[in-house]
Amino acid sequence: MPEQPPYLRIADELRQRIAEHVWEPGHRLPSRAQIGQECGVGENVVRRAQELLISQGVLEGRAGSGTYVAEPRQRVRVVRSSAREQPEGSPFRADMKAVGRQGDWESRTDAKVPAPADIAGRLGIAEGELCVRTAYEFLADGRPVQLSTSWEPYDLTAGTLVVLPEGGPHAGAGVVNRMAAIGITVSHAVEQPEPRQATAEEASLLGIQKAALVTHIRRTYYSDQGRPVETADIVVPAAHCEIVYEIPISR
């Protein structure tokens, strides 16, 4: 039987110390050099062990501070369904309320951003045409659970009260309700989920390890005329959230 790789042995040792309450939730771990010296391995082995435990939600890395024992954290259940589009209010807040969490978000909007090739293709416009781009960080009980970057064709909403998704009287109402306010009926959305590893920026924003598993959802909303009115890249950390799709059945 092949010998267990050293980093897995160290991961088991760290996990055991946590189980035996040597280190409690919120405790800052000793340096990698110190752990390596105690366990008879190099710092790179300790780093790989810690990265594994961070991806499993046992530890958490804090930029510029070190590695800590993660607080117990129940996975948030996120339901993807047409029923989440409410006549009033935010779909995300409705999602979080359904699982007993307080939903909120932070956002940054940039108007008149030239569309990159992939976004232009998804929106059915020419590369370089102007868009309104909004980056979101969604929070459940104050902790990040989802990222999203949304793109809308500028010529679709320019000069209206909904040109800025997070500004004006319809701020935060969601794509469907905002488009309805200017006479555009959104008939359906298409979502394409796929697993991948988090980028360094995503990991920093979500409080997870770089290269940890995330679900990347490419979502596009379409009007009843078949025009794409918004497309977004949604990133959800697998360790913190489970995604469930609800499929309506017509009778």
How would you sum up this structure, described in words?
The chain has 251 residues and is α+β, with helices and mostly antiparallel strands. The chain folds into two domains: 6-69, Winged helix-like DNA-binding domain superfamily/Winged helix DNA-binding domain (Arc Repressor Mutant, subunit A, Orthogonal Bundle), CATH 1.10.10; 76-245, Chorismate lyase, CATH 3.40.1410. The chain contains eight helices and ten strands. It has helices spanning 6-19, 32-39, 43-55, 91-98, 117-123, 154-157, 175-181, 200-206, and strands at 59-62, 66-69, 76-80, 103-114, 130-140, 143-153, 186-197, 213-223, 228-237, 241-245. The strands form three sheets. A six-stranded antiparallel β-sheet has the order 4-5-6-9-8-7. Strands 1-2 form a two-stranded antiparallel ribbon. The model has no long low-confidence stretch (mean pLDDT 88).
Strand order of the largest sheet: 4-5-6-9-8-7
Look at the structure and name the CATH superfamily of the largest domain.
Answer: Chorismate lyase-like
CATH class of the largest domain: Alpha Beta
Radius of gyration of CA atoms, rounded to a whole number: 22 Å
Largest sheet data: 6 strands, antiparallel
| Overall residue-averaged pLDDT value | 88
Shape label: elongated
Q: Percent range for helical residues?
A: 25-40%
Q: What is the succession of H and E elements? A: HHHEEEHEHEEHHEHEEE
Count of discrete domains: 2
Number of helices: 8
Beta percentage is 25-35%
Fill in the CATH topology of the largest domain: Chorismate lyase
How many β-strands, per DSSP?
Answer: 10
